[in-house]
Amino acid sequence: MVPTLLETLAKLAEFVNAPALVQMLSVLLEAEPGALGDFDGLRDIAEYSALVNRQVDAVASRPGTFEPGRSYFFGHPAPD
To answer: Superkingdom of the source (predicted)?
Structure first.
């Protein structure tokens, strides 16, 4: 889901509803509102994407969380 949101954001950063994607990423990856929810990230999509990917890695590295690089649907591993 996160890669799809980032791809969409990269293509549509100037779109009026792009901030909604930023908020979705923040909700998915941050326990409390933080840097991922900052709309200023839309000014430099490459930098924002790197920040999101670092957060994905941080969340995935916590015990009991998802495996990095694996796809999930509604919290369950996707079939290979």
So the answer is: Bacteria
Cβ atoms of 9 and 22 within 8 Å: the answer is yes
Global pTM value: 0.70
In sequence order, what E strands does the chain have?
A: 72-73, 76-77
pLDDT band, very low/low/confident/very high, at 11 (cuts 50, 70, 90): confident
Say whether 76 sits in a helix, a strand or coil: strand
Crossing angle of the two packed helices 2-12 and 18-29, in degrees rounded to 10: 160
Closest CA to 6 of 30, 36, 40: 36
For the chain, domain boundaries:
2-61
77 - beta bridge partners? 72
Rounded to the nearest angstrom, the gap between the alpha carbon of residue 28 and the centroid of all alpha carbons in its chain is: 7
